[in-house]
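Quick one, T. Sequence first:
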Amino acid sequence: MNVRLIQGDITKLKVDAIVNAANSGLLGGGGVDGAIHRAAGPGLLEECRRIRATSHQSGLPAGQAVITAGYMLSARYVIHTVGPVYSPDVDQSSILESAFRSSLELADANSVRTIAFPAISTGVYGYPKLACARIARDVFEAFRPRSLEEAVMCLYSRADYETFTGVFEDR
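Structure tokens:
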């Protein structure tokens, strides 16, 4: 699987699926979650409400992922995953690894060829960007896809792009 890093707006990408760094409620929020919900339109919120009413009544647990349609996005699918809220006192790297891996597995199970990720948990959840970059790189390197051909790390700011580029090129 090819991995590419870009700086930009994940909602504008022409890929098969984009990953939403969602909260467990799945009903939108701030940051990338809010941007994806706004760009996708009301159909996304309606589908997320159905998921909450049926399979995830208590919310989506951290580290897991669910898939919805992309609605008004260029992407056919949105894969929603919940990363950990950072605490310097608790090692939650396995939860962040699971968020990346479960998103890749769900994409692969749905014959997705191209997928784009944001820097999961690095916004309001406060996960250190350097640590997130290392986890993403390691998960991508270990993943053995059936259908996935390309994963794109889409970083919104120049500083985030430079941080992730430094980690991904350090191999």
